[in-house]
């Protein structure tokens, strides 16, 4: 409606509409001038009709095409297999809470559930910038990890401690995942929000899929 109003508001003498000169002699019917034919000729050449005709002819044409994308079957199969063949999972622990934070407990429970579902092995890597000697509750934290995994039905797992190395946790996670050829990394978004793990560097360093668990 806005388009029609615009055209109806434009004067007949503007450049939007071509000038059409009316014939000097209106067509006659049976050799005589017919008032009705004169009115018809006048109506056909009226500015209103010229504007409506121009509006109809100048309307945009819509071209619709149906495109079917053929998926690359090999790529689809590879992606599907990557999410169904988890054999080795990595559980990074980056917080210092000796009894584990809420986000870490969630990550532990998710890792245990995935390990049971796929029959996968678990590697836990505890990361801290401080030396072990300066972490008085470090052993308590390890006991908490063991207890929460056992609650999820996991009794055996591999434990790595990367303490006081001076490297960023993101780089350490990527290094461990690469060295051990891991299939999946499970992290809580809490590690991102607390700035322990850099989300931008995560995609660069991690060579395998990563699950980020929302709080």
What would you say this structure looks like, in words?
The chain has 215 residues and is α/β, with parallel strands linked by helices. It has a domain at 86-213: HUPs (Rossmann fold). Helix content is 43%, strand content 13%. The protein has nine helices and five strands; from the N terminus they run H-H-H-H-E-H-E-H-E-H-E-H-H-E. It has a five-stranded parallel beta sheet, with helices on both faces. Helix 5 crosses helix 6 and helix 7 (169-179) packs parallel to helix 9. The longest helix is centred in the middle third of the chain and has 17 residues, at 102-118.
Biggest β-sheet: strands ordered side by side in the sheet: 3-2-1-4-5
Coarse morphology? globular
Count of individual beta strands: 5
Please state the structural category: alpha/beta
Please state the average pLDDT score: 76
Query: What is the end-to-end distance?
Result: 49 Å
Number of helices, counting only DSSP H or I runs of 4 residues or more: 9
Strand content: 5-15%
CATH architecture of the domain at 86-213: 3-Layer(aba) Sandwich
Order of helices and strands: HHHHEHEHEHEHHE
| Uncertain regions spanning at least 5 consecutive residues | 1-24, 26-39, 51-55
Brief summary:
The protein has helices at 2-9, 35-44, 47-57, 73-82, 102-118, 138-151, 169-179, 189-193, 199-205; strands at 88-93, 121-128, 158-163, 184-188, 210-213. With 215 residues, it is of the alpha/beta class.
């Amino acid at each position: 409606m806005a388009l029609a109003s615009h055209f109806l508001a434009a004067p007949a003498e503007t450049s939007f509409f071509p000038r059409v000169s009316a014939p000097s002699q209106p067509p006659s019917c049976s050799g005589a001038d017919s008032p009705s034919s004169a009115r018809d000729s006048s109506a056909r050449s009226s500015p209103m009709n010229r504007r409506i005709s121009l509006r109809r002819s100048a309307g945009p044409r819509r071209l619709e095409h149906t495109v079917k994308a053929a998926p690359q079957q090999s790529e689809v199969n590879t992606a599907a297999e990557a999410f169904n063949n988890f054999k080795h999972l990595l559980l990074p622990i980056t917080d210092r809470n000796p009894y584990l934070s809420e986000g870490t407990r969630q990550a532990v429970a998710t890792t245990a559930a995935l390990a049971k579902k796929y029959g996968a092995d678990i590697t836990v890597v505890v990361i801290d910038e401080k030396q072990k000697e300066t972490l008085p509750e470090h052993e308590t934290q390890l006991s908490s990890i063991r207890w929460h995994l056992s609650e999820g039905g996991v009794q055996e797992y591999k434990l790595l401690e990367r303490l006081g190395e001076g490297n960023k946790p993101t780089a350490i996670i990527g290094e461990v995942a690469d060295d051990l050829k891991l299939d999946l990394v499970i992290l809580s978004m809490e590690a991102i929000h607390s700035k322990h793990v850099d989300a931008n560097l995560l995609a660069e360093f991690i060579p395998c899929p990563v699950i980020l668990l929302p709080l």
